[in-house]
């Protein structure tokens, strides 16, 4: 609820890494690991901002941020085929109006 993100190892209750205020204090609504690139994950905050984290590029801050204007995004999930190396990865965004939006991710964050 405070925008903190924690990376845990399954064998420990203490996080390996923790990013406090990673969304400037806005609650995290959804977090999804990339299906095609293990070091990348996506975070949706309560203000419809999507943050892209690539831990191989920068493990302190997100590498990109995208705001979805004019409409409240209530959840997100990813689509892609992890067994294929074509770099196709999409974000499925569900808006408060019931509308679904699909946005494809740049290949640099999708390629294995």
Automatic annotation (TrEMBL):
GO annotation, biological process: intraciliary transport
InterPro entries: DYNC2I1, WD40_repeat_dom_sf
A GO cellular component annotation in the UniProt record: cytoplasmic dynein complex
MF terms (GO), sorted A to Z: dynein heavy chain binding; dynein light chain binding
Name of the protein described by the UniProt record: WDR60 protein
Protein's organism: Pampusana beccarii
Organism ancestry: Eukaryota, Metazoa, Chordata, Craniata, Vertebrata
């Amino acid at each position: 609820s405070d925008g903190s993100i924690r990376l845990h190892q399954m064998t420990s209750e203490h996080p390996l890494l923790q990013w406090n205020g990673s969304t400037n204090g806005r609650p995290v609504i959804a977090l999804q690991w990339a299906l095609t690139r293990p070091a990348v994950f996506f975070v949706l905050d309560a203000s419809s901002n999507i943050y892209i984290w690539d831990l191989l590029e920068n493990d302190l801050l997100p590498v990109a941020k995208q705001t979805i204007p004019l409409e409240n995004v209530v959840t997100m999930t990813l689509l892609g085929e992890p067994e294929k190396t074509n770099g196709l990865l999409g974000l499925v965004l569900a808006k408060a109006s019931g509308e679904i939006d699909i946005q494809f991710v740049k290949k640099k964050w999708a390629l294995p």
